[in-house]
Amino acid sequence: MDHIEVGKYWDRNAAAWTLLARAGADVYRDYLNTPAFFDMLPDINGLVGIDIGCGEGHNTRLLAKQGARVTGIDIAAFFIEKAMEWEQNEPLQINYQVASAVMLPFISQSFDFATSFMCFMDIPETEKVLAEAYRVLKPGGFLQFSISHPCYTTPHRKNLRDANGSTYAVEIGGYFADPDGFIDEWIFTAAPPELWQGLPVFRIPHFNRTVSQWVNMITATGFVMEQMAEPRPSAALIKQIPKLQNADVVAYFLQICCRKPA
Q1: What distance separates the 2 farthest-apart alpha carbons in the chain?
Q2: pLDDT in tens for each of the 262 residues of the chain?
Q3: In the chain, which residue ranges form alpha helices assigned H by DSSP?
Q4: Pairing label, strands 69-74, 182-186
Q5: Residue 92 CB neighbour total at 10 angstroms
Q6: How many angstroms separate the Cα of 16 from the Cα of each of 20, 62, 176, 203?
Q7: Which end of the chain is more exposed for a tag (fewer CB within 10 A), N or C?
Q8: Single pTM value for the model
Q9: What's the sign of the alpha-carbon dihedral 177, 182, 186, 188?
Q10: Is the residue at 218 inside a domain?
Q11: How far is CA 56 from the centre of its chain?
Q12: Contact indicator for 119, 144 with CB cutoff of 8 Å
């Protein structure tokens, strides 16, 4: 499987994903991963950036609201269409384009920073993705991205729950499994059943990379690692959004910030 085939999967998922995410079903994004990502993000006010794998534009717009001039790219045309509709209704001077992270359509050293929210782990040509991000960054520019945590997003995964339904452990297997990937099937569990009526289950390719592989690929590309984070919900947040309790048992996300040497 290559990035073109992955793009076809995402095109098939895009309509349901956009509907549900914009209805507030993606609570892990909205209440945990994205806030933690922006807490770690360096100051981008006045900078020119690219959001790689921007989806329907939610986080791209948050970047623009931080004062950056942003371009968003995604391989799924439906996502870009919906992002552009939002931009037309509420302009933030974001430039959206259909493009692959493996072949960014920009000249070298075009951007001060690059971001990617939960995208890179779904692309088989991982080294090319990192190399392309490195290429389009200016010297001294940074790349910050989040991915599903490699230790806990494996081909075998099962939440173990107590009598109250709370997760007390997660059973995992296949951490060192075939890197050619597997199809992950899931839904937004926070979405009301009436929203899911008639919608397909998400089927998304996922490609195994260990933590050491990620770190080694990043440094081999030429980046210098700066920060790493594993967001964890507070007790107060879990009380507000009980669905987030799982992420208090194991880390759901890994966030990395690295920089191209000046």
Answers
A1: 57
A2: 899 999 999 999 999 999 999 999 999 999 999 999 999 999 999 999 999 999 999 999 999 999 999 999 999 999 999 999 999 999 999 999 999 999 999 999 999 999 999 999 999 999 999 999 999 999 999 999 999 999 999 989 999 999 999 999 999 999 998 778 888 888 898 888 888 888 888 999 999 899 999 999 999 999 999 999 999 999 999 999 999 999 999 999 999 999 999 9
A3: 3-22, 27-28, 34-40, 58-64, 77-89, 126-136, 193-196, 211-221, 235-240
A4: unpaired
A5: 16
A6: 6, 22, 31, 11
A7: C
A8: 0.96
A9: positive
A10: yes
A11: 12
A12: no
Number of domains in the chain: 1
Report d(CA 83, CA 94) in Å as an integer. Answer: 9
Q: Which domain holds residue 226?
A: 3-149+214-259
d(CA 14, CA 30) in angstroms, rounded, equals 18
Contact 182, 173 (CB under 8 A): no
**Would 209 be classed as within a structural domain?**
no
Rounded to whole angstroms, the Cα distance separating 159 from 249 reads: 10
Q: Is 204 within the bounds of a domain? A: no
- Which CATH number is 113's domain given? 3.40.50.150
Whether 145 is covered by a domain: the verdict is yes
